[in-house]
Structures are given as structure tokens and as C-alpha cells.
Specification:
Blueprint (H helix, E strand, L loop, with lengths): L21 H8 L3 E4 L7 E6 L2 E6 L6 H5 L4 E4 L5 H7 L3 E11 L14 E3 L5 H10 L20 H5 L4 E6 L2 E11 L3 E8 L8 H15 L3 E7 L3 H9 L2 E12 L6
Parallel strand pairs: 3-4, 9-10
Antiparallel strand pairs: 1-2, 2-3, 4-11, 5-10, 5-11, 6-7, 7-8, 8-9
Length: 258
């Protein structure tokens, strides 16, 4: 159910970098929603936004039919939920993410590139459309939104969020750094570059702008990357992020036939 306010629990307080930012992002973005076994006295809670799903509480209190609707997504869940997930979905694939926190002075970017970076606004929706088409994976529909916009509800919502910065070469959005999940205390970054403009340090200068803006708003910038994605992790370290821990995420779906 789409909501602006989730049921009161102490499961996500204090806010920590990683998946625990998701409930605050749902409230901030008004995108996504939640399911609880009893909103008054919560024993099981599912929070969802874009492809992200967060499970907490007692698996025995989770409605199986509700869970089945959230396949083809990635679940952040304690191990006690694994038997339930395995009974619900045809595939359950674990992958390891490395969580980084911005902690050190970044490597300088070329001076001239800083002038190309600015915050996105509503007029940049078409530029995001083009970036999504340029970066589409094989088999992806050309009109699908870019993955970085999936937790905001689309390109216009991301462009007007106040948490997206882009490097523009003429009319073209060459690189993007944005808040993928923005909580009360943390901003988890998403970074993308048009394949035609790679190796120009444009992603690095966009991340500089994003982390500076986050710091000005009292937010700690974080970066989540698959352990196997060495290029993403190298960019994170160049931008002043340092790894703090690993977490396991489970890609699930589709639901088993009943």
C-alpha cells in the first residue's frame, strides 16, 4: 500500500547505512509502500520501493500471498526469512554487496569538468530518458526508466527530487550521481555514465557534487556496490568512500504457481 507514514517500530532506529534507510526513503519520496500483519502492533513488516524489499519481524506472521506479489526484486532479510522466501519464489539468488561510507578526501577531478555539473530539475526529464536508452541492458525495453530512478517512481520524480546532479556536455546528460535511497541521516548514491562519455572522470565530479550537497544537508553519503563490481568499488574509493561492511541481498522471483 502506498503511504507517507509507516507503522511505528524501533527496528530501524537509529538509522544505519544500508537497507535500514529504505523506510525513511519511502516516507520522503512518497514512492513505494509497506505491508504489516497488524499496523497497531507490528510483528512482521515488508517495506518496498522500486526493486528493493526489506523484511523484518516474525516470518510466521507474514502473509504468503502478499510476499508472492513482490517477486523479481531484491530482498534485504535476516536468515530466518530464507525458508519462507524459498517456498514462495522459483529462484532465490544471493549476492554480496560492500557498503562504503564517505570518510576521506577524494581524488581531485580535472578542474574544467566541475563547470559541467549542476543539479537536475524538471526540464531534465528528456535528458534522463536519453541516458536510460543509452544505458539499457540487452533485452530491456527502450522506454524503461533508468535503474537509478526506480526508487523515485520515474525520471521526472528523480529530476525534481533535489538529490540528483549531472554532468552535461551540451544538451547531453553524460553522467549522473543521485540519491538512490535518502533517509533522515544517510544518502545512498547511485552513479551512472553514458557509455560514450566514460573515462573522462565525469562520474567522479558528479559524486563530488552529490557528497558535498549531502554534507550540507546533514546527510552522510554512502555507496553500495556488488563485491564483484571492481570498477564501482574503485570509483567509490577514488571519491573518498571506504568499505565498512558486507551484506547479503537475495534476488527473488518469480513466485511459484499455487
Amino acid at each position: 500500500m502506498p503511504v507517507n507514514t509507516l507503522p511505528a517500530t524501533d527496528w530501524f532506529s537509529p538509522e544505519r547505512p544500508g537497507a535500514r534507510v529504505l523506510p525513511a526513503h519511502v516516507e520522503r519520496s512518497a514512492h513505494g509502500g509497506w505491508w504489516a500483519d497488524d499496523p497497531g502492533t507490528v510483528r512482521a513488516l515488508l517495506v518496498h520501493c522500486g526493486p528493493e524489499r526489506l523484511l523484518r519481524g516474525d516470518p510466521d506472521r507474514l502473509d504468503l500471498e502478499v510476499l508472492a506479489r513482490f517477486g523479481r526484486g531484491q530482498f534485504h532479510a535476516p536468515d530466518r526469512f530464507l525458508p519462507l522466501l524459498g517456498r514462495t519464489f522459483t529462484h532465490l539468488t544471493p549476492w554480496i554487496r560492500v557498503l562504503h561510507v564517505h570518510a576521506e578526501r577524494p581524488r581531485p577531478a580535472p578542474r574544467n569538468t566541475a563547470a559541467w555539473v549542476r543539479p537536475l530539475n524538471a526540464s531534465d526529464e528528456a535528458a534522463l530518458d536519453r541516458l536510460a536508452r543509452r544505458a539499457a541492458a540487452p533485452g530491456q525495453r527502450p522506454d524503461d526508466p533508468h535503474w537509478a530512478a526506480s526508487t523515485w517512481g520515474g525520471h521526472r520524480a528523480l529530476a525534481t527530487s533535489g538529490f540528483a546532479w549531472g554532468a552535461f556536455l551540451g544538451p547531453y546528460l553524460a553522467s549522473l550521481a543521485c540519491g538512490y535511497l535518502v533517509g533522515r541521516d544517510h544518502l545512498d548514491l547511485a552513479v551512472a555514465t553514458d557509455p560514450a562519455f566514460r573515462r573522462l572522470d565525469l562520474a567522479l565530479v558528479c559524486v563530488h557534487a552529490a557528497t558535498a550537497a549531502a554534507r550540507a544537508q546533514g546527510l552522510t553519503a554512502t555507496w553500495s556496490a556488488p563485491r564483484s563490481n571492481h570498477s564501482s568499488r574503485a570509483l567509490a574509493e577514488a571519491a573518498g568512500f571506504r568499505p565498512v561492511r558486507q551484506e547479503v541481498v537475495y534476488w527473488a522471483g518469480p513466485a511459484l504457481a499455487r
